Amino acid sequence: MTTVTLLSGGAAQGLVRGLAEAFKAQTGAGIDGEFGAVGIMADKLRAGTAADLVILTQALLAKLAEEKLVVPSSITDVGRVETALAVRSRDPKVTVKTETDLRDVLRSADAIYVPDTKASTAGQHVTKVLDQLGIAYEVASRLKIFPNGATAMRELANSTATRPIGCTQATEIIATDGIVLSGSLPPGCELVTMYTAGVTVRAAHPKEAAALIALLTDADHRELRQSAGFAG
Known about the structure:
By secondary structure, the protein is α/β, with parallel strands linked by helices. The protein has two domains: about 5-80 and about 195-230, D-Maltodextrin-Binding Protein, domain 2, CATH 3.40.190.10; about 80-185, Periplasmic binding protein-like II (D-Maltodextrin-Binding Protein, domain 2). Helix content is about 40%, strand content about 25%. Strands 1, 2, 3, 4, 5, 6, 7, 8 and 9 form a nine-stranded mixed beta sheet that branches. The protein is elongated, with a radius of gyration of 18 Å. The two termini are about 35 Å apart.
């Protein structure tokens, strides 16, 4: 059986998983690949890791096209994803409407679960927000940093801390059992990222890769995208 391989930001993992059966029924092909921090996935492609398509941030796809690693005409927007807060399913949701609210919530947490603060979109943003709020040094020892948002959220679900909280892409929160989406970041601290797909120049299965991109982005699957955390 033909298998389409991809390198993707963790934000798209739930959506890709949700479309695997439909893709197999349509093309007879399976899906395999890696999901992780977008910067690391882009560097894997640059280093020669085999992949038929990539799903990364719009900015990264543009760079990879300039580097002649992605076919420019294949690039298609999948949808926007917000960086949001998460709590364990058994814990009360937090209400964060202002920067002051967010500062208080983060200060009161005894563990803060986040993805890679250097290579992931959400992790980089967390670092920026902590600096903006003036509490980066204060909460540094409570940061629990993991290679990607999916891992960070699984660890949050299993946390034995008293008042843990997580911050990553909403799609990764929604896709993880044992935690719930607690709310958006407040005005001034928000981040909404457009995720985009493209066929790689070295794709072994470019036709099937294009078919997967079409499936990920078509109007018939708008509700699935929304339920997975993507906005149009």
